[in-house]
Design brief:
This protein folds into two domains: 171 residues, 2-Layer Sandwich (Alpha-Beta Plaits); 151 residues, Dna Ligase, domain 1 (2-Layer Sandwich), CATH 3.30.1490.100. It has 14 helices and 13 strands. The strands form three sheets. The chain has a five-stranded mixed β-sheet with strand order 5-6-1-7-8. Strands 9, 10, 11, 12 and 13 form a five-stranded antiparallel β-sheet that branches. A three-stranded mixed β-sheet has the order 3-2-4. A hairpin with a 2-residue loop joins strand 5 and strand 6. The two termini are 45 Å apart.
Length: 432
């Protein structure tokens, strides 16, 4: 089997970026949080914190207890996006055909037939260029294998700062010590189904037939994973259960009340609606969710006619809010979220023959609103439901989604902090 794919996974990415930017954090346990509050969780932790037994998502109060001396740092999404883009450019300069899997993971398709020695040489060249052009704290683990799925597995086998090559003679022998859950696409539900078929080890997984995989996954996805595990080259596919556009937010202590929670929900909705239009989608449903400090949860969803209209979505949000069960009224909100689901591509959207001219006009209106907010700064124009929350819910990064600061969070206070990556013999980079 040819070595066709290289996956590079940046270790403790958010924390490593902070340590690169702030030398005083180097060598110390660091926790990255969305807001500075003892009750929030660490969205990322440094390698030093991991070595002390801390895990991601640990509450700040628990992190301080488990990791004496830990430095808690509020996340800076725009900085992480900038580093992601710089790292992507470095990788693309050496391996042009790349697929971004997440903000801290990139897979490259190696079109040249490389042997083991050449593949290792390329990986070390990438690592050296990252150190030279981005920074020594951006350590990475690289996996090289015949398929992108196996390359991803290889990138997780030796951390931090590892390099693992899986050639034909290595598969499956070098994988047999791993649990099946280490394979992308094998989550808790699939693990349960595997167990029902008597498959609990990697050896049993490799012994299973393609037909068994199809039955366990319920269709062609199982066949694809079987082929990828056995070294057959297939195009990259995303591990998604559905498509949506949404935002979540942990409320700071001062905002943990129902009026403020509603205002922040409106703020999140307006952000999501702008992304919806930019992505050229229509939404067929709106879902909102809320976690409370007593660990209870409430969520509800409303079906919609296909829409991009922020005003229509605002009315839907207010309808859902009014349907909350009375038992939640006295509870303290902690986390909230808004999701636009059942997305339909603009090209597949069928306009309503009886659509009011006012609705059509509002489409042009919100295009103008989006443009004003991009040019003049976020929250230059917004609907009144978000009043009082315009400084809340700043841009956050999920590992699987990379925001576009140019679209979502244009704020002139950031001017000069986001820079285009430097290129040899080029003028000084200008601020975005």
């Amino acid at each position: 089997m040819a070595l066709r794919y290289l996956t590079i996974d940046f270790n403790s990415f958010f924390a490593s970026v902070e340590q690169q930017e702030r030398p005083e954090l180097r060598g110390k346990p660091v926790g990255i949080v969305p807001v500075m509050a003892e009750t929030t969780g660490c969205v990322a932790i440094s390698l030093e914190a991991k070595a002390m037994g801390l895990t991601r998502n640990a509450r700040v109060s628990d992190a301080r207890r488990m990791c004496p001396g830990i430095v808690i740092v509020e996340a800076r999404p725009e900085t992480y996006i900038n580093y992601h883009r710089r790292l992507k450019d470095v990788i693309a300069s050496l391996v042009p055909d790349i697929e971004v899997q997440s903000i801290d993971e990139v897979t490259a398709h190696l079109h040249e037939m490389l042997d083991r020695t050449e593949a290792e040489k390329l990986a070390r060249k990438i690592k050296a260029k990252i150190i030279r052009e981005v920074g020594p704290l951006l350590r990475s683990s690289i996996g090289i294998a015949p398929t992108w799925l196996l390359a991803k597995v290889a990138s997780d086998m030796q951390k931090p700062d590892g390099l693992v090559i899986l050639d034909d003679e290595d598969i499956p022998a070098k994988l047999l010590h791993l649990p099946p859950g280490d394979i992308a696409g094998i989550g808790p539900n699939i693990q349960r189904r595997l167990g029902e078929h008597g498959i609990t080890t990697m050896a049993q997984l490799y012994a299973a037939t393609m037909a068994e995989f199809r039955g366990i996954w319920g269709g062609v996805r199982g066949e694809q994973i079987w082929r990828l595990l056995h070294g057959e080259d297939l195009p990259y596919f995303e591990q998604k259960t559905g498509q949506s556009i949404g935002h979540g937010h942990v409320l700071p202590p001062a905002k943990r009340n129902h009026p403020d929670a509603l205002a922040v929900l409106h703020r999140l909705l307006q952000k999501a609606a702008m992304r919806l239009r930019h992505s050229k989608f229509y939404a067929g449903a709106l879902r909102i969710a809320m976690d409370y400090t007593d660990e209870t949860h409430w969520s509800d969803e409303l079906q919609l006619t296909e829409t991009q209209d922020t005003l229509r979505l605002t009315h839907a949000l207010n309808d859902l809010w009014g349907k909350r069960p009375a038992k939640f009224f006295r509870r303290t909100p902690l986390r909230i979220g808004v999701h636009l689901t059942q997305l339909i591509d603009l090209k597949l959207h069928t306009p309503d023959l009886f659509e009011e001219q006012t609705v059509q006009a509002r489409g042009k209106l919100f295009e103008a609103v989006d443009h004003l907010n991009k040019v003049l700064g976020k929250n230059t124009v917004y609907l009144g439901g978000a009043h009082g929350a315009t400084k809340d819910a700043p841009m956050r990064i999920a590992f699987t989604r990379i925001p576009e600061p140019e679209i979502e969070e244009i704020d002139r206070s950031y001017e000069g902090r986001l820079k285009k990556p430097k290129k040899p013999a080029a003028p000084e980079p200008e601020a975005w």
